[in-house]
Specification:
The protein has 206 residues and is mainly alpha-helical. It folds into 2 domains: 94 residues, no CATH class; 98 residues. Helices cover 84% and strands 7% of the residues. It is built from 3 helices and 2 strands. The protein has a two-stranded antiparallel sheet. It is rod-shaped. The two termini are 84 Å apart.
């Protein structure tokens, strides 16, 4: 059982003993408040009895109580709304952080893809340069073969007696030329294909 405090207080010029479970200081504070309100009314309403003053003081105290209660309820509602708004903004903040993290990851993926495509473009360009060197070498060889063919033709015209052997050599040379032409054509087609891939990669990178 809770301990009850008994406190003697003075209200409206008369002493009262108040008992309650509230703290002693709290009881004194309440009594002083009621006494001050009664003194204010007594000064304003000098012709009223103590009973009237007490009733009016009680009415004023009750009015203040319900006003404070209404204000407290209003503040409680506002606080609940603020807590709700705060939770909403926290959720928006968390979603914004997630979106930012996702954006960073996607940006890094795009950068990685761009770097990879640039490496592939460089590799294709190196392959194209190598093909160009091979084509130039084959063109030089074909020119040499053409010159050799021309020399053989000239020799055949000058040496009819060696016609059979020269004809065989010429045939072999012509077959070699055809083979080199086919290889040259294949290299040209590979060069065109690689150029197309390089242009496509460059457009993706840009």
């Amino acid at each position: 059982m809770e301990e009850r405090n008994r406190v003697t207080v003075k209200i409206g010029g008369q002493e009262y003993t108040i008992a309650g479970t509230a703290a002693r200081d709290h009881i004194i504070t309440v009594a002083d408040y009621v006494d001050s309100k009664m003194q204010e009314l007594s000064a304003a309403l000098v012709n009223r009895s103590k009973t009237d003053i007490a009733v009016l003081s009680a009415v004023n105290a009750a009015d203040e109580y319900f006003t404070l209660l209404r204000d407290t309820d209003s503040l409680r509602d506002r606080n609940a709304q603020l807590e709700k708004d705060t939770a909403h903004y926290i959720q928006l903040w968390e979603e914004a952080k997630k979106s930012f993290i996702q954006y960073k990851e996607e940006s890094q993926a795009v950068v990685s893809l761009k770097d990879e495509l640039q490496r592939e473009v460089m590799e294709k360009e190196q392959t194209i340069n190598e093909l160009r060197r091979r084509i130039m070498t084959m063109e030089e060889e074909m020119d040499a073969m053409q010159r050799k063919h021309t020399n053989l033709m000239q020799r055949m015209e000058a040496q009819e007696e060696a016609k059979s052997s020269s004809a065989g050599e010429l045939k072999a040379l012509e077959e070699k030329c055809r083979e080199m032409e086919n290889n040259y054509f294949d290299l040209q087609m590979e060069n065109i294909r690689l150029k197309g891939e390089v242009e496509r990669y460059k457009k993706i990178v840009e």
